[in-house]
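Minutes, project check-in

Agenda point 3 was the complex the collaborators sent over. CS summarized: two entities, 661 residues total, and the question is how they sit relative to each other. Sequences were read into the notes so everyone works from the same version.
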Amino acid sequence: MLEIKNLKASINNKDILKGLNITIKPGELHAIMGPNGSGKSTLANVLSGKNGYEISGELKYQGENLKEIPIEERAQKGIFLAFQYPTEIPGVNTNNFLKTSLNKVKKAKGEKELDTLSFLKLLKEKSSELGIDEKMLSRQLNVGFSGGEKKKNEILQMKILDPNLTILDETDSGLDIDALKTIADGVNSSRDKKKSFLVITHYQRLLNYINPDFVHVLSDGKIIKSGCMELAEELEKKGYKKIN
Amino acid sequence: MIENFKINSSEIDKIKKISKEERNFRINNLNFFNEKGFPNKRQEDWKFSDLREIVQKNFKKLNVNKVNSKVKKINLIKDFDHNYIEVVNGELKSSNFKHEEKNKIKIKNFKNDNFLQESKDNPLICLNHALSDKGYHIEIEENYKFKKALIIYNLFTEDLKENILNSRNKIKIGKSSELHTIDLVINDSKYKFINNVYENIILENNAVYKNICIQNEKNDGYFHKFSKNKLASKSKYSSFIFPSGSKFNKLDLEFNLEGEDSECNLQSASFLNKDDHQEIKTKMNHLAPSCKSYQKVKNVLSSYGKGVYQGKIYVKDIAQKTNAYQLSKALLLSDNSEFNSKPELEIYADDVKCSHGATSGNVDEDSIYYLMTRGLNRKESVKLLIDGFLSEVVDMIKSNSIKKFVRSKLQGQIHGY
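CS then shared the predicted structure for the full assembly.
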């Protein structure tokens, strides 16, 4: 699904990723943990195609060179990034935005676009699965949403767009236990043999609910250790400083 | 090039049936216009819109002659039930108040009976006073609420070419009455012309007036409107204006809150593209205690579009407990677009709440990025953001069918971007 070899990324002449390697196969869920400033969000940004980074190394998604694919096509080809801080967009209705987005992705895949009625049916189904109040969806996109609502809205978008590769950028930060469970349920119910996940987090909390196949520790732009769930537990006990 | 545009007083003699007093009034105003000419940037009110230069650049000649336009059938809007009047090149042609009690409404061609010299500041007002001989006059009796909106179809015919039209309109709403109007501009002329309007709106005690102006097709018209609005005690005025697409458009709006507890709400959303030049100038005069005013002006500007907002709030010494607010926001899409904002507060009372704000900036890159990660390309993302920026104003319209109508008009424009 995703193959990253010796990835280096810098912004404004500041090196952030310094030779990162990771391979994610279909059906796998990888967790990346790391201290502040280790390059976690940069990795998420680079994968989604954000401008402004100098990039070198190999970046392959489903066998294609990801560097040559523009942002919107990455989304259309099934890469989804759940933002750490979802952007507030005044004046844009959440419902309409979701429909536009879904139909763009469907069109690119050569599938039939949904009319308003069937879209609303899908939306109702997915939002009730996640326990999202439908009133939220008639509001302006992320405007005045609480932290939890914003994150839930990201997961709802993931459910609707049904991507192949989902990147969660600290989706668990700042959430209460109930919201955390909603997010975990959303992820767990989407997992299957074909879909892959890259979960970026600070804490073990979310991982307790979603059982990662692999856990990696990112420090100073490199993965310094890889393992399974035990590694996350060890980190929680010892902290990042003692892991080498 | 018309360097020195002057109008011969014989034009006034062409206007039939006028008293000596009226003739003098017209001649005085004409002399004033001839002396001053079109306003230029040396006048503070025209600092950002040098009309003299604009006229000299774009007109080889200007015709003050009356136009005898053939009236074609206007395609009425089918989106919602409404009353209507048809105004062709400024002249009232027909009216239809099928949803209302006819004896509550008076409508006729406008006839001026006020010959007080009121303005020497704006030569265009003088020009209008000198030459206007058409327009409508609507009067609503007391205690009558309109059941359906009134659409004013303002048609400009295809034979207009280098004409300058002057018309004068008046709407008076009686005590505790309510009227909703939609001003719609339909421009069939492919040529340049100037339309100069003087408007007078009077709200008596407890009257309610809601108005929506839509002018949104790309056209070569040059528009100027001076609007004088009087609000008596506890009256409520709200105006939503969606002007765009004209080569030149200046709306000079004066609101006089003369009665206690009167309220005025003015909101505007424009998309200015390809050399459009538009100015909204307001003067909100708080002349009595406990009045409220609210102004919000939003502009999106693209390739050589130019927008101006000059908003003044004046609070008289006796106008305590005034609550006045004005906000202007501009979104600039290209380096060669321009937005000028000049907020002014002049306050002589000490117990008031007045505030103003102005912002202008580019489209937020983070927002574009967010939308693109959801599968929209850059252009689609920007369009969605423009739509969102302007929709905030449209969303304030209460009636759903009218809101839908206005939105589709506005979106039609953005899609051309």
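Noted in discussion: Chain B has a mean pLDDT of 92.
Follow-up: revisit at the next meeting once the mutant set is ready.
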